Amino acid sequence: MLDYHVHLWPHPERADEAELAVERLAVYCERAAAAGVSEIALTEHLHRFRRGREIVEGFWRREENEALRDYMIGYFDHHATADLDRYVEVVVAAKAAGLPIVCGLEVDYYPGLMDKVRTMLDGYPFDVLLGSVHWLGTWMFDIVGSPAQMEEWSRRGTDSGWRAYGEAIEELAGTRTCDVLAHPDLIKVTGATPDAGVRKEVEERIAAAAASSGMAAELSSAGYRKPVRAPYPSPSLLRRFRELGVPLTTASDTHGVASVANRAPELHELAVSAGYSTLRAFRHRQGRDVPLGEAPPAECPSRPADGDDAGVAGDGSAAPAAEAYDVK
């Protein structure tokens, strides 16, 4: 088993570069190994880094909704504080020290800017890049702790939101910037259910986009810690990935050490049920298949309950006293 979606910093917190130490990364590896996970990918958000912001600065100016624009600006002000070179340096040092880590990033989709993003990222020794859609324009649809973002669901409608998400996934995959499609049906995060035909249409578009671009897809336990209380992707989308030959990674999407390898046994069962016997691992942006292996042991009782990622409440909202710029 793999955990190919690991963050260092909980969203409510600004980046603490004290976490950027080989000794600290060893703790993540120890927690993963205890849960039957043999390798992790450090995949901090690109928007956590000052250089990331420099590349995409001002994309929000194209949006008409002033309240959402201002929220997005505040979000970047809160998050884009870390040094990308330092992050890569420490992860590469951890690899050199023999830790079972690969160096990656989670990269959001920025329409019209992905060539600039790709050019910048090509200068770094990344092993894997996750591609994500967390916002549509300046609508940050998965920040369930923000009334302004949730009100936008009512204004746009569930079916429209799902279709816009499917289109963004197609566009992201078409840029061929990233290697893995992270939390592929994140649009279901609130638990709101679209029309059955719309759901089927969007799932087919997502699966076809991954297959045509050569991307792997992520099977993630993060949805269990959100209002939808379900894995990403749905069983139907996971089966469709398998039918189209889309490789699979497994992931916790932990923010901090708390949920490393979260629900690995369930992810193993889901992968096997969908017909997978291998997972896709990466080195130097090149994928290779590794055996799925035996089911991991049951999780230790001392592990946190779902929703207990540091700084994230059980409903997916920011913990009390934290600014609402936080929940992914």
Keywords, separated by commas or semicolons:
328 residues, alpha/beta, TIM Barrel, eight-stranded parallel β-sheet, two-stranded antiparallel sheet, 10 helices, 37% helix
Could you describe the 3D structure shown?
With 328 residues, this protein is of the alpha/beta class. It has one domain (2-291): Alpha-Beta Barrel (TIM Barrel), CATH 3.20.20.140. It contains ten helices and ten strands. The strands form two sheets. Strands 7-6-5-4-3-2-1-8 form an eight-stranded parallel sheet. A hairpin with a 2-residue loop joins β9 and β10. α1 packs across α4 (84-96) and α7 runs parallel beside α8. The longest helix is centred in the middle third of the chain and has 18 residues, at 158-175. The two termini are 23 Å apart. Mean pLDDT is 91; it is low at 301-324.
Describe the secondary structure blueprint for this structure.
Elements lengths: L1 E6 L14 H13 L4 E7 L4 H7 L9 H14 L4 H13 L4 E8 L5 H8 L6 E5 L14 H10 L1 H18 L4 E2 L14 H18 L2 E5 L14 H9 L4 E4 L2 E2 L8 H10 L4 E6 L2 E6 L37
Parallel strand pairs: 1-2, 1-8, 2-3, 3-4, 4-5, 5-6, 6-7
Antiparallel strand pairs: 9-10
Gyration radius over CA: 18 Å
Give the termini distance in whole angstroms: 23 Å
Can you tell me the CATH topology?
TIM Barrel
What's the mean pLDDT score? 91
Share of helix among residues? 25-40%
Name the CATH superfamily assignment: Metal-dependent hydrolases
CATH architecture: Alpha-Beta Barrel
User: Runs with pLDDT <50, length 5+?
Assistant: 301-324
Number of domains: 1
* Count of extended strands: 10
Judged by helices, strands and strand pairing, the structural class is alpha/beta
Strand content: 15-25%
How does the overall form come out from the CA principal axes? globular
Most strands sheet: 8 strands, parallel
Strand order across the largest sheet? 7-6-5-4-3-2-1-8
SSE sequence, one letter per element: EHEHHHEHEHHEHEHEEHEE
Count of alpha/pi helices: 10
* Name of the top-level CATH class: Alpha Beta
